[in-house]
Amino acid sequence: MCNFAEVYEQFVLEEDILSKRIYTCDEIIATMLYLFYKNSRDLHRDTIEEVLMFIHEIKSDLQTEQLHIRIEKTLTASALKEPVQLEQSAEAD
Q: What residues does each domain of the chain span?
């Protein structure tokens, strides 16, 4: 039998890691934009834009992965509460 509590906990851990990775992407983007602001004359605009777009793409992929984890986590949470609902129905009868 599947232990839904352990599966749920694993989804929580995976989501935490993804959240940290997304935050890291945001921080890198903000840092690069600040660097570009401070040194715009010395830096190549197209290169900065390409790097920022690449990081943005990574962040978007991570957000998609996070959404899938949230969906699975929600379904697992729903499965966790079902036995409780069944027990409550049996007690009511």
A: 4-80
